[in-house]
Structure formats: structure tokens, C-alpha cells
């Protein structure tokens, strides 16, 4: 495939490296080269099979508006923009584009979300209170993390709770540490996922791009990861 990677942060660089390892042709644009999505003209975007975005919430929305309008296929690893999700889905559908987004492209995290659903369903009437703790690197812009928000939504749906409290910390270069805690007067159950590197996120995003390259429509990675 011809892959365009938007974002030259640590994850974006790794995504480009993984894509090249998997035999794809890769072009990377950093923030300066693509200020305000200025580089994403229709002729330029048409030269790629898939666009992968690991930028910032504001930049991701600008990039989606530019690329999806051309009917492009986009994998969005950036989080913090989901207040615009309805608009982006509508644009993708109108233009018969492809949009695949996710709060976390790690397969391990996706399994954690499934286990969280089971925990919520099995413990909802057993006197347990749920909470979430997450820690990420100091440069992460959104708080709480998109993964923590996904966890809370899963547990709220499973238990009927109105809100699951989330404690967020930003520290050093922590890749991602998420814990779901269920506590009662008798005991405590903790489900934890700890990322040791960004490699799992990068590989998941590239595999998602390979999967999306032959499809149109809108997809949440959480719903399709087991096909990817």
C-alpha cells in the first residue's frame, strides 16, 4: 500500500517504521509541513491508499475534513476529538470514504474492554463500586485518556451506573497504564493493562489500515479488532 502518516511524534514515527517493515510505501508529514491541513490537497491525498493520523485533537479534525472530503481511507489514532465524531462520520458517509477510529489500537486493551464488560455484568448486584486509574506520559494532551473513557462507558453500560470515577496522572514517559478497580466491603478485584512500549499501538494501527484499504464506511476499532 501507499501509506501517508500524519504526525511525527513518537507514535507516528513508529507507525511509519512498522508500515515500512510490512512492505508498504510510506510518506510522513509533520505539523510544520501540514499546518492547518494545508498539504492535504485532493491531488496529493489521491496518491495514497490509506492515511494514518497520530497528531493532536485539533489537527486530526482538520486532517479528516480535508481527507475524507476526497473519499480517502483514514485510520485515526488520535484521541480527544470525539465531540466531532458525528460530523466526521457524516462526512465519510457522504463521500463514501473510509474512517476507522479507536481510543487504543492495542489488542490487549481491546481484550481488557471485553473483560471489563464481564466484570460489570457479574458484579453489578454484588455490592461493588467501580473506579478507573490511568497514567500516561507527561506530553499526552487529553485527560482522561480515550481508553479510560472507553472503559468507563463499558462499565457504565454493564452495571447501569451513571458515572465511573477516573483518576488520571501524567508522568514521565509512561506508555499507558490502565486499571479497573471493583471494590466491596469484602474484597477488591483489579483488572490492569500496562503497555511497555508504543509498538502494540503502532502495529494495530498499521493492521487496521491494511484492513480498511479495501472498505468504505465508519468503524470503531473496538468493534472490528478481532477481524484485523
UniProtKB/TrEMBL annotation:
<keyword id="KW-0963">Cytoplasm</keyword>
<feature type="binding site">
    <location>
        <begin position="77"/>
        <end position="79"/>
    </location>
    <ligand>
        <name>NAD(+)</name>
    </ligand>
</feature>
<keyword id="KW-0457">Lysine biosynthesis</keyword>
<dbReference type="InterPro" id="IPR023940">
    <property type="entry name" value="DHDPR_bac"/>
</dbReference>
<feature type="domain" description="Dihydrodipicolinate reductase C-terminal">
    <location>
        <begin position="108"/>
        <end position="224"/>
    </location>
</feature>
<dbReference type="InterPro" id="IPR036291">
    <property type="entry name" value="NAD(P)-bd_dom_sf"/>
</dbReference>
<keyword id="KW-0560">Oxidoreductase</keyword>
<dbReference type="Pfam" id="PF01113">
    <property type="entry name" value="DapB_N"/>
</dbReference>
<keyword id="KW-0028">Amino-acid biosynthesis</keyword>
<comment type="subunit">
    <text>Homotetramer.</text>
</comment>
<keyword id="KW-0220">Diaminopimelate biosynthesis</keyword>
<dbReference type="InterPro" id="IPR022663">
    <property type="entry name" value="DapB_C"/>
</dbReference>
<feature type="active site" description="Proton donor/acceptor">
    <location>
        <position position="136"/>
    </location>
</feature>
<dbReference type="GO" id="GO:0051287">
    <property type="term" value="F:NAD binding"/>
</dbReference>
<dbReference type="GO" id="GO:0009089">
    <property type="term" value="P:lysine biosynthetic process via diaminopimelate"/>
</dbReference>
<dbReference type="GO" id="GO:0008839">
    <property type="term" value="F:4-hydroxy-tetrahydrodipicolinate reductase"/>
</dbReference>
<comment type="pathway">
    <text>Amino-acid biosynthesis; L-lysine biosynthesis via DAP pathway; (S)-tetrahydrodipicolinate from L-aspartate: step 4/4.</text>
</comment>
<feature type="binding site">
    <location>
        <begin position="102"/>
        <end position="105"/>
    </location>
    <ligand>
        <name>NAD(+)</name>
    </ligand>
</feature>
<feature type="binding site">
    <location>
        <position position="49"/>
    </location>
    <ligand>
        <name>NAD(+)</name>
    </ligand>
</feature>
<comment type="function">
    <text>Catalyzes the conversion of 4-hydroxy-tetrahydrodipicolinate (HTPA) to tetrahydrodipicolinate.</text>
</comment>
<keyword id="KW-0520">NAD</keyword>
<protein>
    <recommendedName>
        <fullName>4-hydroxy-tetrahydrodipicolinate reductase</fullName>
        <ecNumber>1.17.1.8</ecNumber>
    </recommendedName>
</protein>
<feature type="binding site">
    <location>
        <position position="137"/>
    </location>
    <ligand>
        <name>(S)-2,3,4,5-tetrahydrodipicolinate</name>
    </ligand>
</feature>
<feature type="active site" description="Proton donor">
    <location>
        <position position="140"/>
    </location>
</feature>
<dbReference type="GO" id="GO:0005829">
    <property type="term" value="C:cytosol"/>
</dbReference>
<dbReference type="InterPro" id="IPR000846">
    <property type="entry name" value="DapB_N"/>
</dbReference>
<dbReference type="GO" id="GO:0019877">
    <property type="term" value="P:diaminopimelate biosynthetic process"/>
</dbReference>
<dbReference type="GO" id="GO:0016726">
    <property type="term" value="F:oxidoreductase activity, acting on CH or CH2 groups, NAD or NADP as acceptor"/>
</dbReference>
<feature type="domain" description="Dihydrodipicolinate reductase N-terminal">
    <location>
        <begin position="1"/>
        <end position="105"/>
    </location>
</feature>
<dbReference type="Pfam" id="PF05173">
    <property type="entry name" value="DapB_C"/>
</dbReference>
<dbReference type="GO" id="GO:0050661">
    <property type="term" value="F:NADP binding"/>
</dbReference>
<keyword id="KW-0521">NADP</keyword>
<feature type="binding site">
    <location>
        <begin position="146"/>
        <end position="147"/>
    </location>
    <ligand>
        <name>(S)-2,3,4,5-tetrahydrodipicolinate</name>
    </ligand>
</feature>
<comment type="similarity">
    <text>Belongs to the DapB family.</text>
</comment>
Amino acid at each position: 500500500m501507499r501509506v501517508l502518516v500524519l504526525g511525527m511524534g513518537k507514535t507516528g514515527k513508529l507507525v511509519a517504521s512498522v508500515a515500512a517493515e510490512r512492505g508498504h510505501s510510506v510518506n510522513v508529514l509533520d505539523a510544520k509541513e501540514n499546518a492547518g491541513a494545508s498539504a492535504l490537497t485532493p491531488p496529493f491525498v489521491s496518491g495514497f491508499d490509506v492515511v494514518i493520523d497520530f497528531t493532536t485533537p485539533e489537527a486530526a479534525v482538520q486532517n479528516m475534513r480535508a481527507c475524507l472530503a476526497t473519499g480517502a481511507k483514514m485510520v485515526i489514532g488520535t484521541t480527544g476529538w470525539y465531540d466531532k465524531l458525528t460530523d466526521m462520520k457524516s462526512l465519510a458517509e457522504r463521500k463514501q470514504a473510509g474512517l476507522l477510529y479507536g481510543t487504543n489500537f492495542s489488542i490487549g486493551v481491546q481484550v481488557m474492554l471485553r473483560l471489563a464488560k464481564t466484570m460489570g455484568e457479574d458484579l453489578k448486584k454484588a455490592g461493588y463500586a467501580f473506579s478507573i486509574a490511568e497514567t500516561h506520559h507527561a506530553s499526552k494532551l487529553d485527560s482522561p485518556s480515550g481508553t479510560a473513557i472507553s472503559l468507563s462507558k463499558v462499565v457504565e453500560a454493564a452495571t447501569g451506573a451513571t458515572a465511573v470515577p477516573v483518576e488520571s496522572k501524567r508522568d514521565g514517559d509512561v506508555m499507558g497504564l490502565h486499571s479497573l478497580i471493583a471494590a466491596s466491603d469484602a474484597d477488591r478485584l483489579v483488572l490492569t493493562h500496562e503497555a511497555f512500549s508504543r509498538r502494540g499501538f503502532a502495529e494495530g494501527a498499521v493492521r487496521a489500515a491494511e484492513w480498511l484499504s479495501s472498505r468504505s464506511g465508519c468503524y470503531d476499532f473496538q468493534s472490528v479488532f478481532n477481524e484485523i
